[in-house]
Amino acid sequence: MRCVRQRVNGMVSVDKAVIARITKGHDTFEILVDPDRALEFRKGSPVSMENILAVNQIFKDSKKGERASNSELERDLGTSDIFQAAAKILKEGELQLTTEQRRKLTDEKRKQIIDMIARQGVNPQTQAPHPPLRIENAMEQARVHIDPFRPAGEQMKAVLEAIQKIIPISLEQLEVAVRVPVAHAGKISSVMRKLATVKKEEWGSAYWFALIEIPAGMQGDLYTKFNDLTSGNVETRVVGAKNV
Fold it and tell me: What is the pTM of this model?
């Protein structure tokens, strides 16, 4: 297909634009986009396509200037509207990241995964949680690969399996029985419902009882909060545990 002149969007620098692409069957569709605005759109921010596209055109090959026909767009992307097709490419396709963007995204995702494992993980030999730094060091030793686009929860299992070769760690949920004087029940109940799953509760004349479920790694922090709220007038006991 011959090269044609394209309408350039003055708000986006073509020189700084990166490629976003999607492959449907045997066809590839590309757009030239502002890297920062495209990434914000992909994260869910309401950025208009007019402020993202460097060129208001869908290409088969952006380097050659070969544009996609309306019939190809309709067939493979379900629309010939430039902005709707571009939005589909950005949401479902691949976005070429700058080096700085990829580093920042990967660091953010790594921190999310570390925080999730630190909250739920314990040393099965001692039942003590691992500090985040220890988990991070184990990930580095295991040469864990972090995908900047995949949700942290989807990557946690693979990361856990990798670092189990470096440190003893397992993900556990604990059932904890809690007893506090009725005078402190209101304060501790409010915090408890935000941080734990309350499976059962019972009011007595002098004490309030609850059975809660928490990630094992949160045990120490939760007990500290309970003690602070009740001035130490709280009793806790682990009554069950299960692997996640």
Answer: 0.67
